[in-house]
Amino acid sequence: MVTTRFAPSPTGRLHVGNIRTALHNWMLAQEEGGEFILRIDDTDAERSREEYVEAIRADLKWLGLNWTREERQSTRLETYEAAFAKLREAGRIYPAYETQQELELKRKVLLGRGLPPIYDRGALELTAAERAAKEAEGIQPHWRFKLDHEEAIEWVDGVRGKAKFDPAQLSDPVIRRANGSWLYMLPSTVDDVDMGVTQVLRGEDHVSNTAVQIQMFTAMGVTPPAFAHEALLVGKEGKLSKRLGSLGCDAFREKGIEPEAIIALLSRLGTSLPVEPIADRGKLLETFDLGTFGRAPAKFDDAELERVNTAIVHAMPFTAVKDRLPEGIDEAGWHAVQPNIATVDEVSEWWRLVTGPIDQPEFSAEDRAYLAQAAETLTWSDDPWGALTSALKEATGRKGKQLFLPLRQALTGMNHGPDMGELLPLIGEEKARSRLSRTTD
Ligand code: GLU
Question: What is the extent of the structural domain holding 423?
Fold first, then answer.
């Protein structure tokens, strides 16, 4: 069984990049009928906020990315403690006493010599007496995971293909701070083991974490899950953009973007498949395949999202939208206005033309006479617009714009808008006649 997880830190709102990662993990699980875990990475008590946990849940629900299980790292601290003790006993975790400034200095020296700034494992050189002396001075250690330099790190990445790291080229990662709090690396690995995660899909920025975590899995005596790292999301200019980092569900909702448009776009963006306005998730799932993901950054463009959204709105069935429509609008009303809107919110602007009141423009004397004639000619049938316009054409010799525009203006107050053939039956006979005759007052 496939088990994936989406593991946000509740230190802010989800942005479009997180949403994309969540979606892809959801899809991987959904494809196989597997488990999709929402894991709240809240070990950082200072920066984590309950309001963000709630917002993350609400956003995922709005997007329809339902999780089958929720976990919180803050409730699992004892488990991390136990894993830590075991790894420490096995000699894979060691205390280090360098201050931030000392580490910074070491980095600078290495960089100055043109060498990679890899931690020199100075802490491993300390004797027991030296460590005791540090602690006697009141210096609490932070803790590093000791990479095995003999154990090559290799995996077949679901997106990037064969990946290989030389552990000697990596710093032993700090996994725990001097105050006892956890950094991301170990808890995440422990959770992936305990929660039976089979597939870790995350951003490319985590590739070197994966290298380290693969050794952690092995040190814990388990086979690592499958890993895949997707190329990052960038703005349409091709740069990592600050704006994308703050663009989330609230902004999308405000612009009238449907969750299905976000899903359709983000499921295909950066893949070799075309972005299409597909509202049926089943269809998107059928074609979802990590093998189609490219290695170049995926470019996010608002205009593309808006195009996908409009196409999705134009194809939306009444049943999907009826609870969000203005009072009184029925299926025929939805169909009449649907081709004219870019977002569902815009329905009310057009629906006002039906319910009124409307503002008519000034008409010329000639048009006023024409409209008076129209009011008299109007008969009610299955197709009142067709009947009215052919009768008027016959009687007046008007055609094209001259024939149609004054009628549209008198009936709706607008120069353009929904198909009059659909709109007129919705306006109704009485209201239509009074709008046509009102111009002659
Ligand atoms: N909390 C981590 C993050 O948001 C999770 C990364 C992961 O998926 O392992 O970057």
Answer: 355-438
